[in-house]
């Protein structure tokens, strides 16, 4: 519940800081945010009794309309379209855009659960079938076209699933030194899959057509006792045609180090941030997240360290923090809350925190 | 089992008109009587033929309850009473009774004078309708008749809005109307006690919405106003006399003070007089902060907000003006609009719904030129902003309300069935409650368990307590009381037999049953009795079984064995009628043994 006097200063200052600010409170913390299409989003909530609630909402019109028409639109609410419950605790989800299909990696499940997001006649997101494989609770990556990569803790193989037919279409055998580490997959182009070694921050790029390793990239600053994660600028673009020009890879460590590399020139770090300002608590709770802004601006965002989302400009070698969204916890006192997920929507960001809040915001440039 | 029947009235998928028929305990109650503001024909009114195809409806409806003064909840009331002919009791809170006729009259004027409608209720209809209304106070129990009881609870949302608890016999229903679970700047949050109704009825619009926080909507409003005055523009805010105007004034005053802004802010004088009077009258309906402030000063005695004079319309420079009416269909707000609309630096902020045909509705639909009756054409170059400040609960709010009042069933009305499926599942999962989602015109029947409260005599309670405490503790053992249900006058009481006999003025009679068994058991009868004793003790471990003077006794059951050593034994089993079950059991046991 808002406290009128405590929040006033923050809201008054936000008038200058944000072009758009929408804040929502849910009854459970949101674990994952996945856009279904341009007008709707799926929120997966923290599990209760080993199952996660999954709900699909239409996006507030104030977020989706063109800025010049925003004034005539009073709707700033999420509207529930459909909902359901997962079979087991969800590890990761991927939504196949345009098909109303959600693929979920779940705890103790060898393979994937397939869920259908209804469009018209039913309000239930229901489990349709399970794609069985030898991979236990795999990590997922989707190339936005027809391939889903699955990697699990066994790390022997990467399995490539055809997302049109739901059949295995290929496997990639990872190299020996990768078998001992935890791997996170992410597509860096429609046919290039990056496998990030979470302990060293090195990324091996494999061509999914030939199943061969093409190159290797390293983060600029190896750091002991940290975990790494990655993202690519390819994932942020909405049009496949534009994606071909996107070659940036972002690496983020739990100590707050950010590196941006160019996949065409793996030896050279484009930009770096040493993360002095971020308090690292994510090792105990979350894997942090890094995302590239979908627009042409050289911007990226990170979350998962505290209640804030940080936006950086990586146009120069020394990355610059240009904005901090601190709306999830507006008091200046120390706070134990942590953001759970964030995604870009055009020039806005949707972020979730474990204090039940979800925000949609666009900072003033 | 007694049923509760609920039928939301309306046509098609509409969500803009609230009117629900409720039947419980043989009583029919109409919950709200709203008008759909989007239609210009009969579709704007609820379809009253659901109640009865023809004839006066008064005999079919025991009472009408109106939750608050918004037209989508009370707009059809004058039509229902003065045109359809309902003449039964109508209940609403005091502020609703005071304010509803103002909005009804405003709406009537727009419909008749602006839109030229002829088949509409008149001013006199509105007055006659309101004469039939009985105003109720919060938490006051009102007996509509000897069986039907209603009680109003604070709902927040707007001044005078209430949720209603309705009871007939042992069945009860809570109808929420529109409500808000979080307090705002001038109203408190909805509250209801743990009344555990058989059914909670709420609008499904809220259950499927997650609302953007009020602070963000206020921030958006302040941002738009500030950006406009920063470029030297003028901001017009058309408002209704009562409703959000006070909220927005408090908001602007606080902001102006904090940011040390000097741009003048005005309100139309008529707005303040009426509002002041109503807030003074109904100060107990506002929140604590307002009540505290009002004790010290006038509701509209602001430092930065001053009364407006028409002469200021042409003043140069930035300013902000609150003016009535809210839909720009007449009066000062329209006058100001005509002057300021051609300037692109200016802004109009519409904070509420606008009826089709009004200037407000036209500008909200993007009209760039408005033609008036005198052929005057006004170009609309000013920025048009549409904002909603209404205080509604949302999905989280309805879950909170369910937690507060603990209903046995939930009903969500006025929603699309498909979208309700998941919500039903969620309510079931979280609260283990059945959730009903009837379509408009569809009747839902809710089975309720019959629950008749009765008194229990202290003597009976004490006797049972003693018996229970004498046994070893066992939480699983059920506690059973045997007594006589005595109905005297209007009270019902369970009492022990002797008390009941005295109450009824009759002598108690005792009935004793006796059965005789034949048993082949050579030996003395005392030995047979001993065997029977062991058998009965083994089977009735929790009972006090004893052998006294050759007779086995358990409660009032006596077992006596007679016969010589070589003869067949006769076993006499007798018991009082109150130990029928025990006696029959022992008899059966002995019969089995005999065989």
Automatic annotation (TrEMBL), chain A:
> Which protein are we looking at?
WD repeat-containing protein 73
Origin superkingdom: Eukaryota
Q: Which InterPro entries match?
A: WD40/YVTN_repeat-like_dom_sf, WD40_repeat_dom_sf, Wdr73
Name the Gene3D superfamilies on file: YVTN repeat-like/Quinoprotein amine dehydrogenase
Biological process annotations from GO: cytoplasmic microtubule organization
An example Gene Ontology cellular component term from the record?
A: spindle pole
From TrEMBL, chain B:
- Which keywords, in A-to-Z order, does the entry hold? Cytoplasm, Hydrolase, Metal-binding, Nucleus, Zinc
- Cited PANTHER family: CLEAVAGE AND POLYADENYLATION SPECIFICITY FACTOR FAMILY MEMBER, INTEGRATOR COMPLEX SUBUNIT 11
Q: Name one GO biological process term.
A: snRNA processing
Q: Molecular function terms in GO for this entry? A: hydrolase activity; metal ion binding; RNA endonuclease activity
Domain Beta-Casp, by residue range, is 245-363
Pfam families noted in UniProt = Beta-Casp, IntS11_C, Lactamase_B_6, RMMBL
Q: Does the keyword Nucleotide-binding apply?
A: no
Q: State the protein's name.
A: Integrator complex subunit 11
């Amino acid at each position: 519940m808002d406290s009128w006097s405590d929040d006033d200063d923050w809201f008054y200052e936000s008038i200058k800081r944000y072009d758009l600010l929408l804040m929502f409170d849910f009854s459970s913390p949101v674990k994952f945010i996945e856009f279904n299409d341009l007008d709707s989003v799926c929120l997966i909530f923290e599990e209760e009794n080993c199952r996660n609630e999954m709900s699909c909402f239409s996006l507030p019109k104030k977020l989706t309309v063109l800025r010049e028409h925003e004034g005539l639109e009073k709707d700033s609410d999420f509207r529930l379209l459909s909902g359901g419950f997962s079979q087991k605790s969800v590890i990761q989800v991927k939504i196949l855009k345009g098909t109303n299909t959600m693929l979920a990696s779940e705890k103790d499940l060898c393979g994937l659960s397939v869920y259908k997001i209804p469009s018209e006649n039913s309000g239930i997101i229901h489990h349709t079938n399970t794609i069985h494989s030898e991979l236990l609770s795999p990590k997922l990556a989707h190339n936005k076209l027809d391939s889903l990569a699955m990697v699990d803790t066994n790390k022997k193989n990467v399995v490539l699933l055809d997302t049109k037919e739901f059949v295995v279409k290929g496997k990639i055998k990872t190299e020996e030194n990768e078998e001992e580490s935890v791997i996170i997959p992410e597509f860096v182009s429609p046919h290039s899959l990056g496998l990030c070694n979470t302990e060293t921050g090195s990324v091996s790029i494999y061509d999914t057509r030939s199943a061969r390793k093409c190159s290797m990239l390293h983060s600029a600053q190896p750091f002991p006792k940290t975990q790494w994660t990655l993202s690519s600028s390819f994932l942020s673009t909405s049009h496949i045609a534009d994606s071909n020009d996107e070659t940036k890879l972002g690496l983020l460590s739990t100590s707050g180090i950010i590196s941006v590399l160019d996949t065409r020139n793996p030896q050279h770090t484009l930009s770096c941030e040493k993360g002095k300002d971020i308090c690292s608590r994510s090792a105990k709770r979350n894997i942090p997240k890094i995302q590239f802004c979908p627009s042409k601006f050289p911007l990226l965002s990170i979350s998962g360290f505290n209640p804030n989302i940080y936006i950086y400009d990586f146009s120069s070698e020394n990355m610059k923090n240009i904005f901090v969204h601190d709306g999830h916890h507006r008091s200046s006192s120390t706070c134990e809350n942590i953001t759970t997920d964030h995604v870009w929507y055009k020039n806005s960001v949707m972020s979730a925190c474990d204090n039940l809040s979800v925000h949609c915001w666009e900072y003033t440039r | 089992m007694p049923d509760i029947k609920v039928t939301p009235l309306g046509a098609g998928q509409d969500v803009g008109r609230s009117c629900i028929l409720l039947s419980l305990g043989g009583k029919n109650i109409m919950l709200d009587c709203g008008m759909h503001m989007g239609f210009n024909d009969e579709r704007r009114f609820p379809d009253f033929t659901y109640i009865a195809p023809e004839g006066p409806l008064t005999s079919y409806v025991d009472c009408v309850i109106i939750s608050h003064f918004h037209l989508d909840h009370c707009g059809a009331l004058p039509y229902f009473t003065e045109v359809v002919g309902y003449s039964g009791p109508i209940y609403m809170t005091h502020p609703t009774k005071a304010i509803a006729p103002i909005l009804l009259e405003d709406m009537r004027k727009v419909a008749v004078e602006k839109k030229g409608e002829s088949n509409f209720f008149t001013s006199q209809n509105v007055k006659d309708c309101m004469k039939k209304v009985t105003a109720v106070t919060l938490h006051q129990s009102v007996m509509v008749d000897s069986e039907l009881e209603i009680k109003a609870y604070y709902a927040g949302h707007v001044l005078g809005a209430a949720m209603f608890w309705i009871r007939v016999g042992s069945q009860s229903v809570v109808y929420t109307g529109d409500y808000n679970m979080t307090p705002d700047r001038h109203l408190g949050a909805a509250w209801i006690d743990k009344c555990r109704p058989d059914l909670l009825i709420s609008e499904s619009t809220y259950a499927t919405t997650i609302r953007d926080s009020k602070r963000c909507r206020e921030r958006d409003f302040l941002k738009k106003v500030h950006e406009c005055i920063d470029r030297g523009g003028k901001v017009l805010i058309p408002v209704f006399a009562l409703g959000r105007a006070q909220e927005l004034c408090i908001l602007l005053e606080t902001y102006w003070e904090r940011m040390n802004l000097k741009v003048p802010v005005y309100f139309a004088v008529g707005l303040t007089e009426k509002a002041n009077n109503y807030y003074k009258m109904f100060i107990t309906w506002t929140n604590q902060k307002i009540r505290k402030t009002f004790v010290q000063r006038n509701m509209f005695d602001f430092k930065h907000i001053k009364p407006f004079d028409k002469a200021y319309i042409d003043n140069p420079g930035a300013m902000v003006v609150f003016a009535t009416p809210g839909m720009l269909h007449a009066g000062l707000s329209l006058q100001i609009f005509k002057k300021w609309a051609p300037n692109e630096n200016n802004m109009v902020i519409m904070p509420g719904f606008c009826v089709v045909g009004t200037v407000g509705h036209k500008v909200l639909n993007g009209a760039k030129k408005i033609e008036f009756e005198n052929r005057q054409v006004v170009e609309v170059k000013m920025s048009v902003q549409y904002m909603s400040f209404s205080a509604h609960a949302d999905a989280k709010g309805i879950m909170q309300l369910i937690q507060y009042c603990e209903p046995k069933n939930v009903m969500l009305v006025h929603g699309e069935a498909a979208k309700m499926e998941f919500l039903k599942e969620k309510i079931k999962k979280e609260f283990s409650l059945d959730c009903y989602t009837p379509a408009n015109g569809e009747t839902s029947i809710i089975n309720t368990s019959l629950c008749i409260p009765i008194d229990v005599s202290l003597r009976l309670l004490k006797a049972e307590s003693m018996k229970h405490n004498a046994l070893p503790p066992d939480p699983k053992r059920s506690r059973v009381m045997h007594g006589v249900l005595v109905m005297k006058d209007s009270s019902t009481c369970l009492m022990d037999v002797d008390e009941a006999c005295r109450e009824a003025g009759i002598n108690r009679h005792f009935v004793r049953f006796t059965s005789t068994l034949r048993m082949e058991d050579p030996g003395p009868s005392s030995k047979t009795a001993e065997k029977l004793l062991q058998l009965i003790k083994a089977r009735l471990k929790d009972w006090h079984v004893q052998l006294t003077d050759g007779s086995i006794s358990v409660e009032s059951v006596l077992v006596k064995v007679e016969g010589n050593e070589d003869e067949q034994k006769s076993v006499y089993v007798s018991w009082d009628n109150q130990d029928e079950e025990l006696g029959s059991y022992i008899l059966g046991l002995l019969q089995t043994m005999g065989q």
